[in-house]
Amino acid sequence: MLRSMYAGVSGLNSHQQMMDVTGNNISNVNTIGFKSSRVTFKEMLSQTIQGASAPQDNRAGTNPQQVGLGVGVGSIDSDMSSGNLQSTGKTSDVAIQGDGFFVLRDGNNQVYSRAGNLNFDEQGRLYSSSTGMLVQGWMADANGDYGDFNAQTIDDITLKQEINAQETDSVRFGKNLDADAMNTLEILEQSLELSAGGNSDTLEFSLTPVEGQHNVWDFTLSGAETTTDIAGSGSNKISGTLITDNDGEVVTFETSSSTDLTSGFNVDLDGSSVTMDALVDSSGSSITNINDGFLIAQNGDTTKNANLTFDQTAVRNIAVDVFDSQGAKHTVNLELEKTDNNEWTINENEVEINGSTVAGVLGGSDHPISFDSNGNIDGGETVDLTFTPPGPGTAQTVELDFSSVTQFAGDMTANFSNVNGYASGALESFSFTETGDVVGSYSNGLTQTLAKLGLANFSNPAGLTRQEGVFQTSSNSGDPELGAAAQGGFGSLAPATLEMSNANLSQEFTNMITAQRGFQASSKLITTSDEMLQELVNLKR
Length: 541
Known about the structure:
Residues 95-162 form the Flagellar hook protein FlgE/F/G-like D1 domain. Keywords: Bacterial flagellum, Cell projection, Cilium, Flagellum. Residues 5-35 form the Flagellar basal body rod protein N-terminal domain. Its main location: other. Residues 305-422 form the Flagellar hook protein FlgE D2 domain. By secondary structure, the chain is mainly beta. It folds into 4 domains: 1-51 and 63-80 and 503-539, no CATH class; 84-164 and 425-500, no CATH class; 170-180 and 315-419, Flagellar hook protein FlgE (Tick-borne Encephalitis virus Glycoprotein, domain 1); 184-311, no CATH class. The chain contains 2 helices and 45 strands. A hairpin with a 5-residue loop joins β20 and β21. α1 runs antiparallel to α2. The model has no long low-confidence stretch (mean pLDDT 90).
């Protein structure tokens, strides 16, 4: 009789523990990184009233007669499955997708957590906002490298609050210089009306660039009437060649006849001659430069003229910012001029630094850059630019690397592609990558890899011992295996997200009902046993 009563008592105790675990799961339904638990029951010892007997001759054996003594808690298991991820938009939040735990330092002890609400304290140390414990990982060097990576050597993560200035010593250039680029001559007035002795004609002017030749044009002066004789050539047209340099300076001007158009010439309009002034520039001087245009005038009448202007288009200006050793920025402007077919030149006298021309920066001479017939560079790949910044006061040399520049027919896109060096900067923000790198963003526009979060994994994660908000190793969890995210069996990281509790409310409410019913049934067992005892006591009356 008393066995049933004590069995009921054990049922009350066991279901009360089940209710305690269920209540803890429900109360932590919004706790980030929380791992729920469940209770499993086991039967307690049974009292054997009669043992089993073996079969003999023509009689069957008998089974043992045992009465159970109640129920006990067999285990309280931790569910270490991942919870759902919630995007927070906060760069200091991070969640683990897959296996692994964040490693925290509690004094001299290591503890572990799935909660990724992290932040930095006033000393720049990364810590868990939930517990205040310091996050462990590996620090990167100034180049963002980890050197000889040793997963077992783990330490506090401390952000570098400021980054020192670094002077520029290399600038790389890339993309394309237009192979078809050439300087142009534009004809502003293409015709000139002539009249003499009752006869008239119209002189037409044309310029055609000579294919495959730089700054070379075919020049034609022609009349509409076939009877017109231009410059005694016996033809109604006279042609020539005009060659300039990159600045518009006339190198050569020659015609197909012996007539020198720069000294004046005649046009015969069917027996009536018209005297033409010399082909001169816009100022009336002999042609030496056509940057301001040039003209042909009739008898000194400058109101009738053919005006042509020079446009320098075979040039690419590239401005790039470099930094000195104190972090001051200096703007260097380079002018690349096409000086020949497959050749471009940096004119040393045109190099500007901070808006002013600085002499001698390329070593005392212009720097040519040549290309082969396939558009690839084959000469002048690099040149040193040397100047003295006013702050440091010492000479600084920057290597200009043009090895990646091409020359194909197409858009003029040549520009700098990479510049090292930077000004000093203060840390403005940080973020995490999927592989656990901590990336800092500084006020100088630089981003730098500063550290890597360490993760720990266990042979039996469910064997970890719970402490306030964290886990500790136990004799059945196994030793921690340290490593980096997204490699070696460790999960990847999800930046700006948090892992929510894995408690399942529908399951927990169901467990609550079953715990209540079990508790209620156990209590009924006790009251029924009590009534039976009361009947037994009443027998003596």
